[in-house]
Amino acid sequence: MLYEVLLVAYLIVALILIGFVLIQQGKGADMGASFGAGGSNTVFGSSGSGNFMTRTTAILATFFFVISLLLGSMTANRVEKVDEFENIQVPTTNDSVPSVPASNDVPAIGNEAPTSDTPN
Length: 120
What we know:
Layout lengths: L1 H22 L5 H6 L15 H27 L44
């Protein structure tokens, strides 16, 4: 039960982390703002969205790695169920099954049985 909860949390944290990384501006975006090209950073205050976005990304990345380590250690200690189709073994000689000579392995053509007198 805990494994499934951690797996769902891992997926949610990964998707939110990807979203926050894609929303952030690159380091080169501040260069255009110094020449008057950017004015959208005032939504998050005078310092812009850098502090909020950077902290949130760092926290999400920490959760991502901690959950990854937990899932990895839980998976390493798990015992896999063996599927019945993967464990098919060819039975060795069984005394209850009569052996059939190899000459009967060749199918007969029509109703005729193969004989030693037939030319090849």
